[in-house]
Specification:
With 222 residues, this protein is α+β, with helices and mostly antiparallel strands. Helices cover 24% and strands 32% of the residues.
Length: 222
């Protein structure tokens, strides 16, 4: 193990970024190179510079380590256990982010071996306390689905009501009544029909919708 690097406490940010791919909720991880976490995976993050805010640091670290930017980003929790980092006293302010399932071009720096998506139910060995971070973020996401319109951050601009319901069911891990789910969304005016239909599939073309408002909104859904 390397000698302790930090004499005094320093602040870092770590960002748990979720997406829906292949009918599964996935989280983005980077593969570590430095000891003692060689070949372990971790949540993207890094130290906060002296001249930047926590939010700006989270955005910068996320972009530098993964190439991801311009996503929904929310401060999650502060992880401050004294022994959480073998290199010294590091307090991490965690964030969670959501992106649509459309392909994005991932990249990483020479400090990491690779970057890739993992299903939240099939995580590899993680560095630091990042298993706890992901678990905390997942519970926050499940809760927010019930009382906000946050699902707009995970879906493409246009989607079917079936795809919208599937988004909820995958994350919550349970089936929802089709009639009640659609009735509630339509009654709240959260989604609006586009007038177009999903074509090129074996079954009857389904109506496409979009969110009436793609800004964060607190509203009881479930």
């Amino acid at each position: 193990m390397e000698t302790v690097k930090y004499k005094y406490a320093v602040i870092a940010t770590d960002t748990i970024i979720f997406t829906l791919r292949e009918q599964e909720l996935k989280v983005l991880l980077i593969k570590m190179k430095k000891a003692p976490f060689q070949n372990c995976w971790a949540v993207p993050g890094g130290l906060v510079h002296g001249d930047e805010s926590l939010g700006d640091a989270a955005k910068r670290n996320l972009y530098e380590t993964t190439g991801v930017k311009d996503v929904y980003l929310e401060q999650l929790y502060t992880f401050g256990r004294v022994d959480r980092d073998p290199f010294g006293r590091v307090v991490s302010v965690s964030y969670f982010a959501l992106i649509p399932s459309a392909d994005i071009e991932l990249k990483t720096t020479d400090a990491y071996e690779s970057v890739r998506w993992f299903g939240v139910s099939r995580l590899p060995v993680l560095a630091y306390d990042h298993t706890e971070m992901i678990s905390y973020a997942l519970e926050r996401l499940k809760a927010k689905l019930e009382y906000t319109n946050i699902a707009f951050s995970l879906l493409a601009d246009e989607f079917t009501l079936g795809e919208l319901q599937q988004c909820y069911e995958i994350i919550l891990g349970r089936k929802l009544d089709k009639r009640n789910f659609r009735k509630k969304f339509l009654s709240l005016n959260l989604v609006t029909p586009t007038g177009r239909r999903r074509t090129g599939q074996a079954h009857r073309p389904a109506m496409l919708y979009h969110f009436s408002n793609r800004n964060y909104q607190v509203i009881q859904i479930l």
